[in-house]
Amino acid sequence: MSELLRMEHISKRFSRKFANKDVSLTVNHGEVLTLLGENGAGKSTLMNILIGLVKPTEGKIFLEGREVRIESPSQAVRLGIGMVHQHFMLVEAMTVFENIILGDKHAKGILIDRNARRREIEELSAKYGLDVQLDKRISEISVGEQQRTEILKALYHGADLLILDEPSAALTDIEVEGLFSIMRKLVSEGKSIIFISHKMREVLHISDRITVLRTGEVVGTVNRSETDGAKLSAMMMGRELAVSQYEKKDCTGKAAVAELSGVEYHKKQKHSGLDGISMTIRKGEIVGIAGVDGNGQTQLAQMITGVISPEAGSISLKEHKVSIFDPYDFIRNGVSHVPEDRNHQGLVGDMDVAENLILKNSRGDGFSYGKGTLLNKHAINDYADKMIKKYNIKCSSSAEKVRALSGGNQQKVVLARELESEPELLVATHPTRGLDIGASRFIHDQMIAARERGVGILLISADFDEVLEMSDRILVMFEGRFMGEYSGKNPPIEEISMAMTGK
Ligand SMILES: Nc1ncnc2c1ncn2[C@@H]1O[C@H](COP(=O)(O)OP(=O)(O)O)[C@@H](O)[C@H]1O
Ligand SMILES: [Mg+2]
């Protein structure tokens, strides 16, 4: 394979800190090169250098063997480099078509036939399987379709090299499959892709070669066929991360912390209702819900945390039937929740770490005087410092705004708060979504430790690997029903995958 891009000895310093240090890499025609590295490893900075958004402190870039200077994104586009950013750059109020032709290569004063452009876009869309609805506004389409719009836009503007920065982070498993088949099509037509990810399963699945970055430096570049997950993790984290083998428990006969019996909720709405659900979560047990997002998991989590109430059937907590459905009653009854969307439900971004840690508990534990109106700052800060240590939360101090923390550290704040209240039941919804391996592992270890203390855990996750790794028992959810129940010990993976699609 011949070389398309070479980056040589690239360094970038922000004040005194190197975001990239002496980084060299190559990308061949018709291949997927993956940039693998934990959060903060320097992946985005390197790509921003490549598309002229960031000026390197040192280093050279060659395209087809010729040195190029890339000083602006429009210059990168002219050189055939297109980037789909982690956060899309589309104009919400405009249509897909208008977004794609924005900054058109052939425009500049001449009135170009809209129909001709449309045809060109439609041809590209058909060629690469990039399904989009050209006349829909961005605000009306799914995240997956917005991403296809971005890719189509890059191709329309002539990209031969496509940079995809964490493209799977916001997608469901099925959408990720779709993205991968588009990527395969692109490379088979001779395009090149730089794929950024920290999800090992995806990286192993789609890459031809992998360049691993750690703290701004290249650890190495390997062929996909000559490596495996354990080796890559070790390169990425600088230490061996043993393939986790959490012990599986059989909790038959133990006391139930929560029980659902024939629970129904909007059951006629196939994908967002609950259609006669029964299940038990026992003391010291992790029950995992496997399933494609949108099959009732959100409603299940809301039901078992008291946000919504069943239209038929019943719920018991600690063997007492619930009569009032109110989240605060559930909290008082020992139910903790790591919610699906930590930014909207779990944390208050504008409050600091300490305030978020005591959010549910500001009247207890000596944190307040009098009737709870005056907060005891000193006690709160001591407590927060203890939690920061215990949960390994990386922040400048407990007074740092939660918004400024990385996703992994935000999630640790949520988990610290939810576990320190010593719950009977922890409902963990996508607890490691978007987190890197190190942070995910920490969260998993904490969940296992909670299980050992006797906490019953309901794990709801669209990440099948996570469900397999963590669950003592697995229930498969499809269209608001359970399709089967499996022991977490040697579960029949094929059968479960089929059940997830309703077969
Ligand atoms: N504009 C900037 N100013 C200062 N530091 C930055 C800037 N952009 C990135 N960094 C720092 O550079 C390092 C690498 O960041 P980044 O390239 O975003 O990593 P990744 O994409 O691998 O998560 C991080 O420590 C980050 O805080
Ligand atoms: Mg990044």
Provide mean pLDDT, rounded: 90
**Major beta sheet, specifics?**
6 strands, mixed
> Helical stretch count?
17
> Going by CATH, what is the homologous superfamily of the largest domain?
P-loop containing nucleotide triphosphate hydrolases
Class computed from helices, strands and strand pairing: alpha/beta
Distance between the termini: 42 Å
Low-confidence parts: none
In the CATH hierarchy, the architecture of the largest domain is 3-Layer(aba) Sandwich
The percentage helix is 25-40%
Task: Fill in the keyword field for this structure.
globular; binds magnesium ion; 6-stranded mixed beta sheet; 22 strands; 2 domains; 503 residues
Protein model, in words:
The chain has two domains: 235 residues, Rossmann fold (3-Layer(aba) Sandwich); 157 residues, P-loop containing nucleotide triphosphate hydrolases (Rossmann fold, 3-Layer(aba) Sandwich). It is built from 17 helices and 22 strands. The strands form five sheets. Strands 6-7-8-3-9-10 form a six-stranded mixed sheet, sandwiched between helices. A hairpin with a 2-residue loop joins strand 14 and strand 15. The chain binds adenosine-5'-diphosphate (ADP) and magnesium ion (MG). The site of magnesium ion has 3 residues, from helix 1.
